[in-house]
Amino acid sequence: MNKSSRDISVVIPALNEADTIGRALASTQNTDGIECIVVDGGSRDNTTEVAQSLGAQVLHSPPGRARQMNAGARAAQAEFLVFLHADTSLPAQFADHVRRILGTPGVATGAFQLKIDGPSPGLRLIETMANWRSRFLKMPYGDQAIFLRKNLFLEIGGFPELPIMEDFHLVRRVRQRGRVVVAPVGALTSQRRWKNVGPLRVILINQVLILGVLLGVDPECLARW
């Protein structure tokens, strides 16, 4: 499939992700109609070299995940955008799910179920809670590979360039424009955040952050905390 017929742009923000970016990009390969854009925020390792060796277009941006994803979205040539974290892998046939969901009338955005790469029962609890939240509260997070149409993304102003919780703010905006649908398959994300902090602490931190956002706490304060 030639460049002009690509209908899905996968945008991956990265910063010192040489050990993980290969798996993320590998999950997009062997799929027709895909453009891969890695937006590097100033890596000091060989993230960009790995990405280029796997055929991704590499852009450079000041650091900040929201800023990097916005830069990638602006450069994207496709109709549909998929925002993929560098430590997350897309499921097989992900493109079919993106096309089907975003092609359904009334749907504004979609995401995949959360799967965490680790055996801990605490991680299974987090998956269950996240997938319940996504299905019933219509609030998927960034590690579930949020996807939507580029024109809608630009209309709502993209990700707010905040130091934290940019995915939460985006979904709150976009769900006012239509339904949020979660695909019946999961995106597999690294356990490193939960492993480093602990599953229960991550749950508590996430809930406090959400409460802080809803109460209007300054995002810089939340990020420092």
Question: What does this 3D model show about the protein?
Answer:
- The chain is of the alpha/beta class and 225 residues long.
- The chain has ten helices and eight strands.
- It has helices at 21-26, 47-53, 65-75, 94-102, 121-137, 150-155, 166-174, 192-197, 199-214, 219-224, and strands at 8-14, 34-40, 57-60, 80-83, 88-89, 107-117, 147-149, 179-190.
- An eight-stranded mixed beta sheet has the order 3-2-1-4-7-6-8-5, with helices on both faces.
- The protein is globular, with a radius of gyration of 16 Å.
- The N and C termini lie far apart (47 Å).
List keywords for this structure.
41% helix, 10 helices, 225 residues
Write a short abstract of this structure.
With 225 residues, the chain is of the alpha/beta class. The chain has helices at residues 21-26, 47-53, 65-75, 94-102, 121-137, 150-155, 166-174, 192-197, 199-214, 219-224, and strands at 8-14, 34-40, 57-60, 80-83, 88-89, 107-117, 147-149, 179-190. The termini are far apart.
